[in-house]
Amino acid sequence: MINRLTDALPSMPSSIVAGDSLRVVHADLAATYPASEGYSATFIFVPERGGSAVTIDGEASSGGWLLFAAGSVTADWAVGVMRWSVKVESPDGRFTAENGSINILPDPASAADTRSHARKTLDALEAVIEGRASKTDMETTLADGRQIKRISHEELVKMRKTYAGLVAAEERKRGRGGPARILVSL
After folding, report:
1. Are the CB atoms for 25 and 66 separated by under 8 Å?
2. Dist. CA 176–CA 170, nearest whole Å
3. How confident is the model at residue 144 (pLDDT cuts 50, 70, 90)?
4. Which domains does the chain have, with CATH numbers?
5. C-alpha dihedral, 177 to 179 to 180 to 184, nearest 10°
6. Residues 6+ apart with CB under 8 A from 53
7. DSSP three-state, residue 59
8. DSSP label of 149
9. pLDDT in tens, 119-143
10. From CA 77, how far away is CA 54, in angstroms rounded?
11. Closest Cα to residue 123, out of 58, 153, 167, 89?
């Protein structure tokens, strides 16, 4: 078993929790592009929804090119998908050696609202329909730019059905909503 606090992972993980350290070694890159021959490696992370890129210089080690991002670095990463790439450079030029994506999960210890967009919207729609909406609920803005407070009751009820379906699908995907169908054999 890999000790994730001290040992490097052999490949980029599919997800990490914001605030956790990230340590990955790319052994194959170091064999082909050794630092001793003038190569360097840079790891670049860019939020899929846009935002500033995070660039981390790779460290040449005996095991390969090492990426190390301290927890203080990943704590600032936005929750969601980040695209990553490894750029290799030498005096002869630069190219992208590897790329992929990593899902940044919310830190459970943070006070951040970790509900999905669909869940937040469904909660706001239900609050408005039931007459218990807060100012924040009323000012929820939908993808088309409209605020909930400007939508008719009939349309709110229709939208609630749509968002309830989206939330149910999310919960089934996470294994919390039960099966989509119950199959019976006679």
Report:
1. yes
2. 9
3. confident
4. 15-105 (2.60.40.10), 117-171 (no CATH)
5. -150
6. 44, 45, 46
7. strand
8. G
9. 888 998 998 888 888 888 888 887 7
10. 9
11. 167
